[in-house]
Amino acid sequence: MHLEAVSDPRWAAALDLLESxxxxxxxxxxxxxxxxxxxxxxxxxxxxxxxxxxxxxGGAPPSSHFAEVARSSLGRARTH
Length: 80
Known about the structure:
This protein is an alpha+beta fold.
């Protein structure tokens, strides 16, 4: 299931799919997934996002670039 924003009327259904681990969901350009096998140790949410720049070429630590890309993607998903 793919959604452009959390305001989509299918958001509740998407969360149910995510929580059950039945399927990953797309949110804007993010992919969210949860493995039901992690129920024993608490749910683990995996967030994937495209990185359109080489995170190691800018001179800053790679984690700072990833954080910036993730913040931008989450911001777009929240505001649409």
